[in-house]
User: Fold this.
Amino acid sequence: QARLRAAHIAAQDLLLPHRVAPSCCPMSPLLFLLPHLACLALGDLSGDHAAPGDDAAELIRSGCAELLLVDGRYGLTDQGPWVTDEDLEGFEARAGLVDACENLLRSSGLSVGPSADVAGAHTALPPGLQRRLVSGSEWYDNPSSYYIPPIAIAFGVLCLLVVFQEGLFLRTTLVPLAPKANIVTNEFFRSFPMNHGEGKDKGGSCSKVQVEGVPARSEKAPSQVSTSFWEEMRQKATVSMQSGGPTKSAAPGSERAVIGFTRRDFAGLEAKGTAKVTLERKGNTRGRVVVQVRTRDNKSAGPAFMAEENRDYVPFNDRVTFEDGVTLRSIILQLKPTDESWSPTRWFRIEITQVVEGDAVLGGPTVTSKDSSDTMSVRVFILQDDTFPGGIPQKYLSKISMEQEEKPPEGAKGAKPASPADDDMRFLLYYWKERIKSRKAKFWYTLAGLCYQPVHNAVVTPIVFSFMLNWAADPSEGGNYSAIVALVCVQCASYLLLRWGDVSQTRNRGRTGGVRMLHRQQLLDKILLMEHVEQWEKPGNEMFYAGLMNVDVMVTDGYWQMYIMIQSLLGLLLVLIVLFWKAAYKAAQNDTSIQFENLLPALVLLVLTPLSFKLIARRRERAAELLQKRMEGEEDWVEVFSWLAANGPRIYTLGMRELANVVNQFSGLNKSFLKNHQGARDVCNDSTWITKWLGGGAYTVILLWASLRLLHARAGLATNFEAGDCVLLIQLFDRFTRYLTKVSDSFVKIQRGAVSIRRVSQFLSLTECRSLFDLAAKDHEVDHITDPLAKDGWVELKDVAIKIPTRKDSHGFGPAVDIQQLPGKVLSIPLGKVIFVKGGTEAQHSTFLKLLAGLLRSEAPGRVTFPAGQWCVLAPPIAVHITNRKVSDDFELAGASPDAAKALAEAMGLDPSEGLMRMAPGQASMQALGKSMLRDPTVLIAIRPIGSAPLEMREKIMHLLLAWQSSGGGPMLCESLGKTVTGAESPSAVGSNRMKFPRTLVLSGEPLPPEIPSKFVHEIDLSMYFRGFEPPSVDI
Assistant:
């Protein structure tokens, strides 16, 4: 056995799994180690000492993956066992070694040169592969260069895939030019649910409102209009007073019939499926009259309140016939049911377009608009009785009623009333049901995107890692380059799917536009449709907190945690599935039965999962109680901030002691809140540590057990356990701990979300449009909509009583007091006159006028009866303005044209472009009074109408009120303003074929001007009709 001459096999010359450095060793012992070598490098073999040819042949059979024979010139790359050398002279067994080299080259699929010239072997390679040859010295100096080319190629391919997916498939913001890309594939990609906009749910809306900014205060004085407008108002008022009062231009018994609706608002319950509308013929009832009636959408209601035909109601367009002597006709409109998601009351219009046959004119109540100036149009309300969330039964909306219904009978065993935590979970389940049904396909797209994350983390990544260690990177197990590349490709594909899932859930989850702002819109709609009494049942600060905080919590901790919990539960399930699969795979690989020790990790997880849920569930009641108290405490200090935000510009009226009192009040509320907050925080946080301790303990035990088992396997004491198996177990238990913690965290958070859902449900379940509900209930009980107790031309009050709630949490009805009408006394108020109310205190006046306006409701059996077609408006003593609006905007919203709105503002001495929030108190009161007149009620009620007006405007305002009352109301006002602007008669706002009638003006507060004759005014002394009212001290 020859030795190597002048050189030896050094450590740096070997690429081994473990380093071996024999020195001048015989060839045969070296060949014995070849099965463990990845690459063998032989030094200079020229000279007297040479390896025998048999040894060269043995090199081929050794199993060495790469054989490198170098003399400092050429080396080996990663493309197979290439052998190149230019100096093999002196090698006694040259022929055998050359044959071996050629065999190695041919086994790699490469062509070789003549066997006599091994140095030409590398020149016979393809040009692309020749450039990949590196020198022997570079090879040994930088072994990492072996890995650089494949890593660079893989990185480049991955970058191209990422750019393609982000820019062309997903069109995300990571590639700025992606949305502008104009390629054919974009049409295909648009079919995927990747729209950037948040979805809207049926039953609600999140419309965008254009708000104009408040203009800067003008330095110029408001322009002055001609005095013709005020002169006309004075003349109309004077004529009316001299004639002894207004007269109707058309009256019952006249030659022509008057066709109209019995009132301006009708209603139908969605649950009943119908709404009844009644038409009335007054005046001449002889002969046959036919009118055309149709329904249409009320576009001025906005998207929130607008009912759409064929979606909310069945359209109606037909003729209605009054036969000889018939005075009433009813129309039954069909309403369509909606889904169980909560939606506000919506309305549409029904109008009489023309008289088709007979001698009649149109008249009666109407709701004027720009597109119905020549028709009689009224509103039909579709009253929603849906409960929130998801149509939850009414008995669950009240905690007291629920406890009473679920209270077990006496003597029953094993039954107990539902706890508050159970109630909250019931609300949560109904809420989830509504959200799933409302979000439709977007819910499933979001869920699919989120659910791929546990597939990636618990299935793909651990299995790829395990196979990479146990198979692809182990030549003895059949591993090779192709296997490594295949597993890397699987991992890259999983990352691409993970990114797709993230984009899908981000764009379809709708946490803000689809859910959060939807609930805020619902609360806003509810507040706007609640009547005066219901507004005082739930003050605005509680609504403010619900819209700001409760909605955010119910979406973040209620709606979103539904997805997180499903995702985490799926992760737990996948971990168990992978563990069972791994046990079965190992058994199949070794052709044995499934060993218990391979099933042990999965069995441990099966025990830990229900145990952790049970321990957390035992703390639910305590957590629910503390979360409820925390929310109530937060409501209290938010009330202070809401008050400060609303009254900040007026706190200059407070002294330092009062300011200090506000600070002390906030400090006390904050202290109480923090106590409940810390208690709820500790309970919720400690609950999550139940699963953290269980999961962490299981992870520690598995880490110890898997490491010991791997040690025994490597020492030969155990079999069937490799490094990949150890890594797989550790990774899976780590994932299990994380997902178990996320489940427990979601479970704790959804309790907080359930508390907020229940609070929002209480607000959305309040009755809206209560008076319309009462009318709709009566409409279904009678054939025609008329009040048999109503007396034509008179308003009557009998046995009325207002009792302010005295419970601790009640806020009363604002500035109102208890009133009780004297028994047997009937208060009759004539219509079409000026009514002056006297007697009693200011609070009693306010209560009585609110009762007359329908803002307060009398306790049974008291009643306030109006003739058909009458409706009241109470001009507010303190003006209420829409934010970010101008004076002219407010008049236009009340029904005036842009020119008329500007003219009325200038006539009142107001700047049309002035911001409403910047007006002086006297200007604001005039503006509110003008807006009330433009709304054109049949009965206008005003408390101190000129008390705050400037002195120079008081007489003009009084003439305006009297002219409005006697000469046609709002339409007359618009006509006069039209003449002021254009100098010529403008078309009547009510149409030339309608009947004009006088309005009723009810005044209270300051005495009337002395020039108004007493016969023109009907006085009411409240002390004669109500208990506890002081008689008036001064007559008018």
User: Anything to note?
Assistant: The two ends are 141 Å apart (CA to CA). The chain has 27 helices and 22 strands. The mean pLDDT is 74.
